[in-house]
Amino acid sequence: NAEMKRGADGSIVAAPIWHEYMKQALAGTPAENFEAPAPAELPEKPMLNGQIGQANLAQIDRASGKLATPLTPPSFIEEKNFQEVHCILHYVNVNNILGPIPEHPESDAQYENWEAAVKRWATENKLGISAAQPTAYDDLHTEENKPNLEIRAPSDGAQFNSLNLNVEVAVTTKRAISRLEYYLDNQLLAKVTRWPFNLVNYELSGFGNGEKWLRVIAYDDIDNSREKSIRIYLNLPSEYTEPVVWLTPAENDKIYAEQLPYNLRLRINNYSLYNKVDFYMKKGDGSSIWLGYSEVKSAEAGVLLTEALPGEYDFYAVLTGKDGRVVKDKGIRVQIEEQ
Prior knowledge:
Pfam families: Big_7. The protein is mostly beta strands. 9% of the residues lie in helices and 38% in strands. The chain starts with 13 loop residues before the first helix and ends with a strand.
């Protein structure tokens, strides 16, 4: 056998001869077209349906490596794509091609050789074959493994007339406690990471008076959690519930265009608790506009309002405490006029 010379293949030699022959043989006959076959539904099997393999997206618990359950916390759930790549004998019985997928495809004498070749080909072509999808379920995040938590003080229904909030808890767990989170209604107060995990001397400045829900959540090292809550009632002096008093402008004041730039000034109650104050304005349902900030060095702080279109605005301040806590005041409504 010798190598065929370039240009000696059928497309160059035989095909033109056949085309010329058929052109003369069918001269004068009507043209005929092939009819499209009726659509056929593809089998629900990889390979036979044109798919290389089955991909399964599963939620996996990061701690156990097993399938996530309703008790697996979102912080420990990751989605993994398990790509299966097999030879065709994995999906078909040679004696019943369109029948069910074989339960034991390895019983075919050729399966091992075909499967090894396909696995090698998939690896060489970087198809990303993944490990087998787990079938067992997360057994680390369970009701039994949740921390035990008790709020010892204050008692349910306690009244608070002073600024400081202290919470005493008792917490145990089968694993290791990671942290306790304290909330007043839905606002996070603090994360405590050291034993005995109590909340000590938290300053309640900026919270309105009335009924509040004090919530405590205990987490272990893989975020198994237990929550307890009680009602408390705040009856604090106004200097704590209203962190700022607007000096200029006041509620319902008008600012005229000719007054710009305008000096926005406010008085900060208990100013020694805060590091800075940010000023904002907001028109209707629009976005808030940051106007600037002032470091808190005394009871009064302010910024300049340099420009604003006519309209009704809400002005408000956001205080940043020395402990990092952020307090937003209720704000004032002001009308800006052209003349």
